[in-house]
From TrEMBL:
It comes from Chryseobacterium terrae. PANTHER family: GLUTAMINE SYNTHETASE, TYPE-3 GLUTAMINE SYNTHETASE. Residues 87-176 form the GS beta-grasp domain. It comes from the Bacteria. Belongs to the glutamine synthetase family. InterPro entries: Gln-synt_C, Gln_synt_N, Gln_synth/guanido_kin_cat_dom, Gln_synth_cat_dom, Gln_synth_gly_rich_site, GS_Type-3, GSIII_N. Coiled coil: none annotated. Signal peptide: none annotated. This is Glutamine synthetase III.
Amino acid sequence: MSTLRFKALETLPFKDFRKDNSIEVPVKLSELFCQNVFSEETMREYLTKEAFQSILDAMKKGTKIQRHIADQVAVAMKDWAMSKGVTHYTHWFQPLTGSTAEKHDSFFTPIEGGRAIERFSGNLLIQQEPDASSFPNGGIRNTFEARGYTAWDPTSPAFIMGTTLCIPSIFISYTGETLDYKAPLLRALNAVDEAATNVMQYFDKNVTKVTPTLGWEQEYFLVDSALYQSRPDLVLTGKTLLGHSPAKGQQLDDHYFGSIPTRVMNFMKELEVECMKLGIPVTTRHNEVAPNQFELAPMFEEVNVAVDHNSLLMDVMARIAHRHHFHILFHEKPFAGVNGSGKHNNWSLATDTGENLLSPGKNPKKNLQFLTFFVNTIKAVHEYADLLRASIASASNDHRLGANEAPPAIISVFIGSQLFRVLEELEKVTEGKLSPDEKTDLKLNVVGKIPEILLDNTDRNRTSPFAFTGNKFEIRAVGSAANCAESMTVMNTIAAKQLNDFKKEVDALIETGLKKDEAIFNVLREYIKQCKNIMFEGDGYSDDWAKEAEKRGLNNLKTTPEALKQEMDQKFLDLYEEIGVFTHREVEARNEIKLEKYSTVIDIEARVLSDIARNHIIPSALKYQNRLIENVKGLKEIFGDKEFKTLAKEQMSLIANISENVSKIKVGVEDLITAREAAKAVPESQTQAEDYCNKVKPLFDVIRDASDDLEMMVDDELWPMTKYREMLFTR
Ligand SMILES: NC(=O)CC[C@H](N)C(=O)O
């Protein structure tokens, strides 16, 4: 028993340090809230009135911060941070690598006479110039203009991690193109603010700002770190590339919402304390459906801050997990045969007068307002479904979509049968002017009924990629490893475009002499007719739905390369330019980056799988086969030619079976290597990704099937790979 698997398992027998790693948690978590954040309250304390007002204006109205104010803010930030033991600062940003980036610089500055001081200035706060040549740029940056800039985003508060002051920032190229997730998101958020505020003038002239909100739900797996280290596939790819499913998985539904294992609870508690200090308002924790799968969710926040908080959280989670001897898996499908992990994005729009625009109100006017934003959102998804699909595309999410409570790749909208009936009523609204009777009927019996309906809206559909859940839309298709900024940029861009179009159409009807409400009803009626085909209430996994969706003209972009190809449609390029979110060049660059990433991920998986198959699986299978051969030989020696044939029948069939699977693996690996090399040599990224998807990836199954069969034959004591049972049920 010399394999890594057994060494890892030996460390497990629940040594005390693994069991009791609990920390003291104050009863009032609220006391910790924002302790490490340069929050509004802290700013009020540390800044002059003028500087404080200027930051508030920047946050709320997007006004520019003047240089002398930035200097004051920098000094205040430094003083506050130093009072908490901070020595360094960093522009904290989110490049297209998928993780966060930080380069720490010290406040320490030598001055004349062998002396030194701690210094931080407005210049350094506003802009940094990281050596950025190694970040993904999709060909935007040539090496001769390799500089990139990070610029302070005053709309997301600075925070302290360890002994470093982190300043949320955007990341752009020397030539001004965005190279991160935040910069385009901010553009999309501004666009939807403007569009929604304009539409709100029909309903409430006091509204001067609309802020999109996001509440994400983060699903994840925890695996004992020793077991994790024993699986080269988990370490190098974040997922298991082989492994027979255990007899017991999630069939009994006994993990979901079950009592949280002590060691996990200790991890969660420490995590929550850290989140509180960082101002991440986490409120919910529970066991998810798959064994060793969990979820954490905060209160919703403004989208920009929510996105930053999610990126920050993922970083913090990984670190705290290590302290509890866990490794956290954010991969969307680390284990075959059980649920994968999503990051459902709950999206809505909030006004500066305190209203949620996707929540129906107390009177017919408010309900028409609700319907306006509700129908426009559905219409936006209808028009730009493929873009939404592309925003959630990744090699890892491909494994998750379409099974185990994750939605399929066909984008549809679920609103529940009762709201669906309301829309059907609205479809019947008369064209042009409405009679007084019809108006009253609409007010009382259709629009007026909405609040009641929603009170009773218990419909849930876990197979829907985009579901209305009473006062928000839940984008269920987003993967657990994704940066929510991607889907949020698309969501807010398409909502902005749709609301702009709506405003134009309603205004045009008002010009022809219709009353405002009549004009709105008329436009909504047409929208409902146009986008009915994207609404679907049934089972998203059924073959019937795939057929029906095709009839309805909805795309079923099953794989990332298909989705990314669609992203380059002229309609989408024009949309981005019109709303001012991306230039054509930026979209092309991002598309290129995603394609390259896809191919690279599959390439790495192919290599890891080949290595494991040849260096771990085949040798162990042969070792066991040799044992069997020895056994057969022994039987022959003892019992003689005739009798041994009956006695050794099982062993001989096993020997043959092992050989068959070993050859399948051997041939599979050879084919995989050939296909991988061919795909690697393809120069054009789209074709290359398609080759990796269609010619390389399918070969994984051949190897995996043979290996998983062997796992069931080979003596447990000789099997080198830590088993699913061990990874999923060690807590
Ligand atoms: N209960 C749930 O909502 C499960 C969701 C599922 N884990 C997903 O992949 O999205």
